[in-house]
Each structure stands twice: as structure tokens, then as C-alpha cells.
């Protein structure tokens, strides 16, 4: 069986947990606590030398990077697809997901926040402000792009009548936004899309508060 190394409140881990649930793929989960610094220990770094979660152990070897893991799942378990069928919509869906995973999330990562504190004298309040500002900036762009596509609150999921990679990336990032106290009022479309997706059983059953560790 697939083994997933995951941390309950890791948004990148949550993305993979949602994708697994949507695909109906079961996994044996191993909790890697970022609070207890399990990710920095030799045992976990032998699995992921980057010292990040998630990582999956498969029959073929170890795979890291949430979006690579999700695309591997898409290739090996094509149904239900995590993408819209139309190539242009699929590209837009990927762009949405990458904006979250490549641009918004990395600057608020635990290692970055610890470095801001250790080397630049930032306290908890300052790093929270830092995270909130980067999230708000990124969400501003995603809100504009979502409006430009003509998506409206109540239209369902972001790119299809089922959740896609965009929803998978949005919901965990919304959790982070709420954790850092981001004012979500300027992002009504993202808030509506988040509400729609997080009520889906695959999102509910894998949410941080349902997880061990
Ligand atoms: N690009 C990676 C990011 C993985 C990542 O950074 N995960 C976070 C938790 S959400 C982590 O392990 N952080 C550890 C650290 O910052 O030291 C992915 O999408 O899998």
C-alpha cells in the first residue's frame, strides 16, 4: 500500500490527502510533526532529503513535491480526473494551482519564518504580518483572474462540476490565510469557492483537524 508521510496542518500534505480521497486511493499515513522537528531528523531526511512534507513511498520508490505526487496519481488513477477536460481550462487550472503552491505558499513556510526570526530579529507578530501580506497579495491576483474568467459565487467548483487541482490548492491555503488573520473580505470569489470545496467529503475527511499527529 502507498505510504504517505504527512503533517496534519501542512497545506502541501493536505493537498495530497484530498487528491488521494478524491481518487479513492487508500494510504498508510505516517505523521511527521513539524512542531517536534521530525522533518529535520536523519530518519525523515533519508526519505525526503529536502526535509519537507509530503512524501510518498510507492512500489517504484519515493516521490516528493505535492503537485508531482498529485499528477502521478492523475496518471495512474485517471478517474475521476482532477482537471477540466478542455486544454485551455486545464492550463488555467494549473496556473491557479501553481500561483498557490509556487508563489504564495513558499514565502510563509516554517523554515522561512524561523529564518526571519533567527537572522532578522522578527518576532511572532512580524512573521504573521509577513505571511498575511504575501497571502493577500497572491489572493488579490487570483481573485482578479477568477473574475476575469467570469466565475461567479454559486457556480460550483472553480473549473469544473467536480473539484480540480485549483480547489485542492485553494482550500489548504485558505486555512493558512485564516490562521494568519488575513482579511478575506476583498476576495469574495475565493471565499465562495473555498466554501463550496471544503464541504466536499474528500476535503472534510482529510482536513487537518481529522488527522493524527
Ligand atoms: N513544494 C513542496 C513544499 C513542501 C513543504 O514545504 N512543506 C512544508 C509543510 S506545508 C514543510 O515541510 N515545511 C518544512 C520547513 O519549512 O522547514 C510541495 O508542494 O510538496
From TrEMBL:
Q: Which GO terms describe its molecular function?
A: glutathione transferase activity; maleylacetoacetate isomerase activity; maleylpyruvate isomerase activity
* GO biological process, any: L-phenylalanine catabolic process
Q: Please give the start and end residues of each transmembrane region.
A: none
Q: Does the keyword Isomerase apply?
A: yes
Q: What is its EC number?
A: 5.2.1.4
- GST N-terminal domain mapped to chain residues: 1-81
Enzyme class, first EC level, given as a word: isomerase
Q: Which UniProt keywords apply?
A: Isomerase, Pyruvate
The text of the family note is: Belongs to the GST superfamily. Zeta family.
PANTHER family for the chain: MALEYLACETOACETATE ISOMERASE (PTHR42673:SF4)
Q: What is this protein called?
A: Maleylpyruvate isomerase
Q: What is the lineage of its organism?
A: Bacteria, Pseudomonadati, Pseudomonadota, Alphaproteobacteria, Caulobacterales
- Its encoding gene is what? nagL
